[in-house]
Records
---
Amino acid sequence: MTTLHLPLDRSSEHPIHRQIYDGLRRAILEGRLSPGQRVPSTRALAEDLGVSRLPVLTAYDQLLHEGYLEGRTGSGTFVSGAIPDDLLTPPPPGARAPARRVGRVTHSAPRPRDEGGLGPFRMSLPALDRFPHAIWARLVARRARMLRPADMAYGDPAGLVALRVAVAEHLRAARTVRCEVEQVLIVSGSQAAARLAATVLLGSDDRVAMEEPGSPLIRAALGAEGADVVPIPVDEEGISVAALQRRGIRVRAAYVTPSHQYPLGTSMTAARRLALLDWAHREGAWLLEDDYDSEYRYVSRPLGALQGMDAHERVIYIGTFSKVLFPALRVGYIVVPSALRQRFVDARETFDLFSPTLYQLALADFLREGHFARHLRRMRGVYRARRDALLTGLARHCAGRLTVINADAGLHLAVLLEGGLDDRDLVRRMAARGLTATPLSICYTGGGGGGRSGLLLGFGGSTERRLLEATRVLGQILEA
Amino acid sequence: MTTLHLPLDRSSEHPIHRQIYDGLRRAILEGRLSPGQRVPSTRALAEDLGVSRLPVLTAYDQLLHEGYLEGRTGSGTFVSGAIPDDLLTPPPPGARAPARRVGRVTHSAPRPRDEGGLGPFRMSLPALDRFPHAIWARLVARRARMLRPADMAYGDPAGLVALRVAVAEHLRAARTVRCEVEQVLIVSGSQAAARLAATVLLGSDDRVAMEEPGSPLIRAALGAEGADVVPIPVDEEGISVAALQRRGIRVRAAYVTPSHQYPLGTSMTAARRLALLDWAHREGAWLLEDDYDSEYRYVSRPLGALQGMDAHERVIYIGTFSKVLFPALRVGYIVVPSALRQRFVDARETFDLFSPTLYQLALADFLREGHFARHLRRMRGVYRARRDALLTGLARHCAGRLTVINADAGLHLAVLLEGGLDDRDLVRRMAARGLTATPLSICYTGGGGGGRSGLLLGFGGSTERRLLEATRVLGQILEA
């Protein structure tokens, strides 16, 4: 065990726990602490530093949460074998980066109206049964009782400062997003963010590239102002930059889901990320990075956002609380390059002035008081178990009838149907049995026919038992 | 005193109080009860009908609220001298309707960013000090504790049915809006409603007419999709239909504030309303009626909405809770012709999916449990007193330096400045003394210079004492 050099500055504007976090993180990234190395116990480090144990616990918690440290039951805390930031250093030009899957993302699901409801397989639904209802209700009630006139009057179109500060801190720490608080705007979710970006960035003569397949609602948002939405195929590494280049000029922006391609579930490789950033820089195009459910990954640790790798301020980063908390909250955020900030704020004001204040206040409390980080951490195990149950059920009841494309991350997985089955027809038959799936074909431009036939199966909102039972029913339907 | 024929049907889906209300209202409108006539006491009528006194009180309450009945202290309840619905029967063609001022409306104020804050004269601000905080906090807390999974998941883009039912009932009864529940959509306020209407109704080659002067933010919303916003002057009777006609073809829609012109405060006469409806019908154009603060009128009773006079489904009716409750709620509504409904719902979904559920639930409770009607009624006296205080203060401290244009309705009044004063400069000097006024000139196309120099003085958000003091300070500034 090394003695750590962790200079603390009590007059700093950064709290002690943040300084401990920063010091440990730096020591790990600079190699002063090596993968597999054991770190001091929180009690020992607190004594060394002459501080209480609380800030040390907070710092360890965050580092465990982000994957810098890992705990082994009964034997202490260790530096992780693989460090999340390793992709942040671009490989030398020409070198092929390891084709390892990184991070993931999704966003507002297509919501075919006839397949609504909260049945098993419902897309984009978090584990509402595991949400900390009592804590949330207490925070909301407290803020509702305390509402001051300023909280009831007109709010800032950019969002409540306290919430923007908390979001910026979270994004910097957990998603390696590089941002100042001023760049963070609070909006009504990722749909609203995409719609807003379309208004600010796209004229009616412009083209905007979108991953094919992709979310029909996002496609509608991007084309809402008359821009031509150009479908660009996604391969195993992510959106095809070669295809983007072939589309030539006037592609003003490209919408991508690098961490978890929506809907197929693949992750963009490091090489593809760099090629995409390079394309955007050369063309002067914008990248809309929708990084929604990036917090959940089951095969390796979450990796940084595309935004954090971007040296030229071409990325507009979009996220939402719909899937880490719950959709009816209607709070998301957008991180914009400083040069675009005022145009985004003005457009947002023209749309709907500002977001409701009460939820922004309660949410800022929820983040600041640590409930958010705790909830995220707890949900990781919950979703992994649900995903495993779904995979087990599919293998047991549906083998030979469908193929799972990717189940590494997020709250849903995509499967391809064998034998020329019409997925929209299948979804209707599933709905009749109480199952709420989404057909894959509606995610292709034109809405079906041309695209692949498959199912998007959400597993976030259903218990393991319910998912196992649902796959049994799905097996019967496929059999029939 | 007549014996009233009020047949009650206990098996009806309408509650007893509603049947009593309907029966009395019909008797008044059909002339079976005449203006000035005394109606039975609630106790006597309850006995006559063989019901408890509660439903009779509820019905009388509503009729008093809407101006069908009036109470004279110590002498009972009487049919009002002037009946709100008298404009609903159009005058015979050619006949000139009385130039009486009717109803009023306003909406999201221009919010010049440098003059923010909650100082006296802040526009569009209700009496937050008189809001029933405890009741509201209780309803919100109750709903937050009770949130079911369905309330946390994805909601209906059209809005929560319970709230739409309550809004439709309110609009039918209080604003003579003709609508089915299906036509009511819940949105984030009147700004969002105008922005949504622009997306649905206007292409980039279209023209949209807007009252001149008008709200800069609404002007931005109407032009956001590339439509050409054509300013149409407002005279003493309202928007100039002659000027509209001169603009020729391709005016797809006209945005109007018939009940309370924003910002000047005039009300559209009945004759002008009929001419405008006639124009829209002939041209196949849409009328966007923004009917925000129509609940408050000080010189005569509120009159019906333009929408209720329209026989051809040309009116899109917009309202908001921002000014009757509080702006940070972010809940408004839009009533659309049935033929347009699906397009509005689809566009709304593309914008931001749906409105946060919790506030919709709490607001539905607030309306259903009668708190809303009570609050509206109480505020009428509060705002009248505040308006009177402002008028008194202006007469006392600013006489000869400015002219009040109109103070009949709403939460603000407009004044014109004498002697060529620059209103934007004056507003800056007022801000330095803690006063939050809005310059009138920014409401003209181009944002100043060409328009009239004046001030928009909000009185809703300040107490009488504060308004009197503020006018004294304004007098000193004008003197300097």
Note: The domain at 16-111 of chain A is CATH 1.10.10.10 (Arc Repressor Mutant, subunit A).
---
Amino acid sequence: MKGISFVFGIHNHQPVGNFDFVIDDVYRRSYLPFLEVLREFPKIKISIHNSGYLFEYLLKKYPKYKETLSELVGRGQVEILSGGFYEPIFPAISGKDRRNQILKLTKFIEDNFSYHPKGMWLSERVWEQGIVKDLASSGIEFTILDDEHFLLSGLSHEELYGYYSTEHEGYSISLFPISKELRYLIPFKEPKETIEFFKDLVGKERLLVLADDGEKFGVWPGTYSLVYEKGWLREFFTLLTENSDWIEILTFSEALKKFPSRGLIYLPEASYKEMMEWALPPELTIELQEAEEIFSREEKYARYMKFLRGTFWRNFLVKYEEANNMHKRMIDLSQRCSTLKDAEEISLPYEYLMRAQANDAYWHGVFGGLYLPHLRSAIYRNLIEAEKELDKISYGNEDVLVIEEKDIDKDGKKELIAKNQELALFIKPSYGGAIFEIDYRKKSLNITDTLKRRFEAYHKKIQIAQAPGKEEGKSIHEIVIAKEKNLENYLIYDWHNKYSLMDHFLKEGTTCDSFYRSSYGEQGDFTILPYDYSMIEEQDLIRLSLKRKGHIWVKEEFLPLDIGKDVTLIKGDSSIRIDYSFENKSFMDYNAWFGTEFNFSLFERENKEKYIEYPDGSRSYFDDISEKKDIEEFVIFDNVLGFKIGFTFDIPIILWHYPIDTVSQSEGGFERTFQGLGILISFKQLFIKNEIFPFSFNIKFETL
Amino acid sequence: MKGISFVFGIHNHQPVGNFDFVIDDVYRRSYLPFLEVLREFPKIKISIHNSGYLFEYLLKKYPKYKETLSELVGRGQVEILSGGFYEPIFPAISGKDRRNQILKLTKFIEDNFSYHPKGMWLSERVWEQGIVKDLASSGIEFTILDDEHFLLSGLSHEELYGYYSTEHEGYSISLFPISKELRYLIPFKEPKETIEFFKDLVGKERLLVLADDGEKFGVWPGTYSLVYEKGWLREFFTLLTENSDWIEILTFSEALKKFPSRGLIYLPEASYKEMMEWALPPELTIELQEAEEIFSREEKYARYMKFLRGTFWRNFLVKYEEANNMHKRMIDLSQRCSTLKDAEEISLPYEYLMRAQANDAYWHGVFGGLYLPHLRSAIYRNLIEAEKELDKISYGNEDVLVIEEKDIDKDGKKELIAKNQELALFIKPSYGGAIFEIDYRKKSLNITDTLKRRFEAYHKKIQIAQAPGKEEGKSIHEIVIAKEKNLENYLIYDWHNKYSLMDHFLKEGTTCDSFYRSSYGEQGDFTILPYDYSMIEEQDLIRLSLKRKGHIWVKEEFLPLDIGKDVTLIKGDSSIRIDYSFENKSFMDYNAWFGTEFNFSLFERENKEKYIEYPDGSRSYFDDISEKKDIEEFVIFDNVLGFKIGFTFDIPIILWHYPIDTVSQSEGGFERTFQGLGILISFKQLFIKNEIFPFSFNIKFETL
């Protein structure tokens, strides 16, 4: 009888910046036991991809892993796949960076296993047709995508048993579709069900591919017990071995040789179905679900369902401006790196840049880590390290003092960048003249990387979330778990991004709590509207001057007010000087309550090593919603990261601070994440008509 | 009051290879009168794009056009847009070619008008995000897309009044959405309706863009009378002028200065809605229409309709293999061109290559010209000219004799190419060992460029097609006209591509007519199945040897038969030698009726200068469905193109020939098009078991 050919691929990945203890745990519960079971079944072949950061870690820490894998490669049981070393989203990085990411992992595999990988794992299967050229010219012959990609291009399920060829600019690679049925069967259903599934397909010669996350075999909820303790994997391999007369197990490379291509194909930009939905704005996610429901009522719903999809990966950058800011910083540094000469390229800045391309922190779905501050922080750390290395090449050992005006975030409006050896400031005049990034360069930290609290389509499910523990063995997409009670109390939505130096006017009666809850009434039109700007550069000093002719509500009237704010950076100095000026342009004097907002991404809300200290020696903690009146200075201590930020003012101010928490979904269920410390510095003042009221303060960064 | 800003863009285009008389007519009825009316209205501003081939033609032939346009540019009334010189589909050509196409048109405009264009028209608005870098690095600041593109990315209609910024690899351009409402209003509804439409939008400051085909103003059915004779355009311009207190007319460049960008956007690969549907396989077009109907029954249908779309442009190449063959020939030559040194690049081969990138012949919808043989022929002529120039650089004046094995069509299987100074042959071993291209290089003709007769979704409408004449002023998408009666008689569908040297076995009783109608029963498994191959190269000769172990039906049994066919090309010789061998591998002798099919793309079915001449001096014509028995030679004369093709055989054969007609839609309605001359050369023979039966013939090309 015509038989089944089966390719079984495994993709193991840990993001740059993940905690060692997490990786160690995954190694013990999944990566190692999988190989150990495989060793017992010499007829079984697996194609394995380890992303570079993880692969390096495993080889360094676990000689046994290298030994076992080498043995299996030697026996012909394992095909190793290449990929982007730090698992970047390929369409989101430059052509040159794509090639370098692949070549680095290929070389790593060759160096460690004397083995030349022919194919690659495409990170998150994020596909755009234009990447083909870079893949092919990096020596890649094939990659693996979801069947979703192929169905979107108009193929039927019957046409998915095999592989296709595609091209861009005449460069070709082969594409294998992953079987969705197998993705849901393995390892969640009894092993024999997969064999039954294969049996039903016998009759024509058919090639079937499963390629899926290795963490499904031991780390996903309930799977360690299922796969190893209850013996799922041994049983599966046993059944495959017993049926090897009609189920032929191949590596991808062997399948390429055995079967001819099914022909030319062009695939639309896509990823797996779920990710394309995650990339939609939440209102559209809801509309898409409604649309699916309408089709599901039709008898021939499969005919129509294939037309429905979300959007492509790049829209995560539109959905999450914080991801875009990070991405465009990376792109900007990539452009700087691309001007380096060959010898410099393989050197430090390029290495840091590539690490900063690790995809995880740039998006969010179930797995995407945008909501995880430690992952974003790892990206920024690498970006800042890359920039420091580039600055060394550009400026040598001289003290840096740079002022730049460019559309770094690519929104069509100019941003301002001011940088010295100690600090780098990124300002959006078009968005309230806010500072959207402050790098404390000595620590390679972007200390303002705080997420806006925004509505996510899945927030609607929080109310119906169940207690943990009852859903073992289910697909992650089916699980609804809340890791904490009363999460709905934290569903606060901000009306603007959580940048710094954001200008507010409050009405009498506003409290720290109402400001924290974003349920106060804004009285001015300054917070997110455009500021004019100019730049002053003196020998040892740079100053960005921001001005807006705006208004504030005074009783029933919207009265004119000009705000100027100057941001000054001095050569070699680790402080920022802020000089505000307020000019009442109306026909009358009025009282105003002005506040300037800062948001600092300092982790661990409950860590007592992190606090705010006041002149009277008292302290408050990051977890508090706290008010302190009539102070002229305060200091934020972070004894964990080892630095402090001191604020000093020329008049007494009111300090409010509160934690910024988001609620997001993750593999483990819904969770609350501390994104940063929100601060409002405010004062109440009578603004005399046509008079200028000045307000200045200083922010000083010091290592502890 | 907050007013309306209006940008009015016009795109004029004629494909490479279009007939001069057609262009002259369009000039008189549209391009010139439009400018003449514009001259009368100094307050009206228009942004104009002429594709390069047309622009060159107009400037050369009509000094008045240049004069008028220069005057309007001088007055600031006209902004000229750049684009791809020969109007290529940008995602379908290489990055370097994209840049060269743009730079050529920009330079042409600068040279002729001392004017630097800042924006460009994107051919057919075919968008992929990856093209941004090449556009930006060619000096382009903006382009114009359909609102469809923006709605697909999740924007609401309200968000379309303005322009957006986008980027790829850090390179940015601005994108203007075209208003679909305006596209349907202008010039099809009363001018005042557009003013009313604008009036309804007053209240916020809004930018509206119309950019559409110039041919809508005078050439589309009924529009000359409407736009000029009945005075639509004058009235429209008069109304705009009278309302200039609240309707500000801007060029694109002025709009860029006046309005800030609405922010960053990423647009999915798209074109206008209709084109995305045309690119679908016909069954999917029908399913998509059903899906639209399901949504249209919903109250809030607009919420859902936006999720439905066809597929992206590249799928035309999968839908029409003939388009793909042409495209991949072009890509292959582009790769050869890209290796040229700079001085040679701007020379002839590159110029021919760029002409061969003109989009029209590569796809089909209402406007797409794949079904028009003269447009395909123009592409092939330029491809062959480019290749001849490249060969001159590679081989100098030496006689060429090349044999190559490569996957030129990128379907994952190798093709064979044999070429001498006179002829080039392209063979697909994987597809019946068929010849899919024969170039008669002296005439720069691909004489085998015949289309398969295939089902198109719109064929379902042919039955309900109306007589012409009653639908003036309607959008082209609404018109259903048959240019000829009884078109349904020509709805014949082929089961394979119309290549040459395709092997058939016929059953007794098959007639020329039934073969023409593709309603015979194929008795072998040779026609489209794979042949093994080998290549022999001697000093003055190359031979491609094709072999298949196949079967034929003899009564109720499928008996084994080996076919070998050798294709020989001799240095400096303009003939092809074909040597067949048939080996009956069964247990018994049997009778077989073998035929080899050729398809020649020789235009004009009814031209009496084109005929087939037999040894007895008789003739038959391309329009005939004709049989001639027991001949050992025949000659195809094309006195128009000026060459003949002589066939001589070593045994008497039966010749069948018949016209290959397609039925397709066009601007003017459904039409029948003569794609080529179909030929079947056959003989009946007893194949003795285990004996080889040889059959040879020669095909000689001679210029008249």
Note: The first helix of chain A runs from residue 20 to 39.
